[in-house]
Amino acid sequence: MGSTEARVAVVTGAGSGIGRAVARRLLADGWSVALAGRREDALGETASTAEGTGPGSALVVPCDVTRQDDVERLFAHVLREFGRVDVLFNNAGTFGPSGDVGEIDVAGWESTVAVNLTGSFLCAGAAFRAMKAQEPQGGRIINNGSISAHTPRPRSVAYTTTKHAITGLTKSIELDGRPYGITAGQIDIGNTRTELIDTLGVGEGALQADGSRRVEPTFAVEEAAKAVVFMASLPAEASVGSLLITASGMPFVGRG
Q1: Which keywords label this protein (predicted)?
Q2: Quick count: other Cβ atoms within 10 Å of Cβ 230?
Q3: Can you give the C-alpha Rg of the chain in angstroms?
Q4: Average pLDDT of span 248-255
Q5: Does domain 8-193+220-246 fall into CATH 3.40.50.720?
Q6: Which residue among 67, 135, 223, 242 is least enclosed by CB atoms within 10 Å?
Q7: Contact, 112 vs 123, CB < 8 A?
Q8: Which residues are catalytically annotated?
């Protein structure tokens, strides 16, 4: 791309939390960013509160990542507007039902898999095809995993299983993308301050493996966004395959 052209990123789940923080930072750094998510009003708020300093612009595209037609329309819209896709931040996700494997129902399991895994697969596939076809070939897919891709919280079987699966998706994309200059990396984030953390009770006392509850430390979502943008901004010759970032002192190492 020429020096006056903005790099192009697609961010899913851009209406809140980590997705919103990443989209804002990319826009501030001069990227052109497609903001994808279910709530158009929330996406518009993300776009309107970002301050850009370069040639990039925001594109709001309402999209349900569990629907293949929506995902295909998203990437077709991005290609019409910006001409290419340099980075996908595969971020949309849900914690899903709380319970052990004997307690959660099939509907709760399937809805979690649909968003966290099938949605990531659909977006990665559409991005991969776009990156493979564009000139010059190549691009980067960054999947938002979780520290639950390493070890679970209690009563999180659906969420934890999907996040373990994201690791397999990331490694497969990285391997299959090599002939086309497509790289893949995964960021696993622990206890950044978002709406999701509020649902886990981290600030009041999150359930621990021994049955107790403990107030856990958190860190600013903007710091997680900086890490994602670092991964996104590397030159094509370098790639971060896996990055783990957590709140200092949180019960992750030694959990259980």
Answers
A1: Oxidoreductase
A2: 12
A3: 18
A4: 82
A5: yes
A6: 135
A7: no
A8: 159
